[in-house]
């Protein structure tokens, strides 16, 4: 009788031990399934964010600053003729003798209205703005009716990775150093040849220098050295950081007389409308 009771006790403990092992195994598998589910969810969310960041036609601010790795030092070196607070603005006026200062009309008077443009050389929306408004902007500039102030930013580098935004902006600042309308001409070349947003071709200095050949007299030893050494990299990053804290969220951001005039679907801007607005501002 005692032996039978002992045997039954042992059997019960064995059954309980097996149930305990099965239970622990089941719990372990459940934990593994939960971890796998969380990883899949995070992966999907990450993919969605990446697609949204890459698919938007305008550049949207995704980070306050981009990777600070670059060939240049940390000192901020503004390009020649930069103006505004911190000298972060490149002014562009009429081309020719009367406009060599970039701000006066043919009679030597300051242009009555200012167009402020925040742009990223990798941004497709910025290229669209330039393609539609380039001739009108140049016409108003060369008539002395309007000056343009450019703020160079690097949103696409932050959204998609790469360095094409900062490299192209540095090269444009190097063109500004050369004077005589070189910035405006090179600025237009960069937008005409803008690569696909996901192809970071402007990260290559050789590509930027080759495009500069389309601007007569631009490619000098000084220009080449400026581009290759990243002379204005820190200046570009500073300009982009100020934009990130400005309250504006996308490129292009276009202001006329300090008021946003572009990007509102309820109030679309056209070249003729821009002309009328500039003329009206000059009369006020």
TrEMBL record:
Superkingdom of the source species: Bacteria
Sequence ranges assigned to domain Thioredoxin-like fold in this UniProt record: 111-277
Transmembrane segments: 41-62
Biased composition range(s): Basic and acidic residues: 13-33
Keywords assigned: Disulfide bond, Membrane, Oxidoreductase, Redox-active center, Signal, Transmembrane, Transmembrane helix
UniProt KW Transmembrane helix keyword: yes
Pfam families: Thioredoxin_4
Region entry Disordered, spans: 1-38
Similarity comment text for this entry: Belongs to the thioredoxin family. DsbA subfamily.
Protein name in UniProt: Thioredoxin domain-containing protein
Native source species: Streptomyces mordarskii
């Amino acid at each position: 009788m005692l032996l039978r009771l002992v045997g039954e006790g042992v059997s019960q403990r064995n059954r309980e031990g097996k149930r305990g092992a099965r239970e622990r195994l089941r719990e372990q598998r459940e934990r593994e399934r939960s971890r796998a589910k969380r990883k899949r969810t995070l992966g999907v969310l990450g993919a969605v964010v990446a697609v949204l960041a890459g698919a938007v036609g305008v550049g949207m601010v995704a980070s306050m600053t981009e990777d600070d790795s670059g060939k240049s030092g940390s000192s901020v070196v503004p390009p020649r003729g930069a103006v505004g607070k911190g000298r972060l603005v490149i002014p562009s006026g009429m081309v020719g003798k009367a406009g060599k200062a970039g701000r006066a009309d043919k009679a030597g008077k300051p242009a009555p209205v200012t167009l402020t443009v925040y742009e990223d050389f990798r941004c497709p929306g910025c290229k669209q703005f330039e393609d539609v408004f380039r001739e009108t902007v140049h016409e108003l500039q060369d008539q002395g009716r309007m000056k343009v102030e450019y703020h160079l930013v690097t949103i696409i580098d932050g959204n998609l990775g790469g360095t094409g935004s900062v490299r192209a902006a540095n090269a444009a600042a190097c063109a500004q150093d050369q004077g005589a309308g070189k910035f405006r001409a090179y600025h237009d070349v960069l937008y005409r040849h803008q690569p696909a947003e996901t192809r970071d071709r402007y990260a290559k200095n050789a590509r930027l220098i080759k495009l500069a050949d389309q601007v007569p007299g631009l490619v000098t030893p000084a220009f080449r050295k400026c581009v290759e050494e990243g002379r204005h990299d820190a200046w570009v990053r500073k300009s982009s950081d100020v934009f990130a804290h400005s309250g504006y969220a996308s490129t292009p951001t276009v202001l006329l007389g300090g008021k946003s005039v572009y990007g509102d679907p309820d109030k679309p801007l056209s070249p003729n409308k821009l002309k009328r607005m500039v003329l009206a501002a000059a009369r006020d």
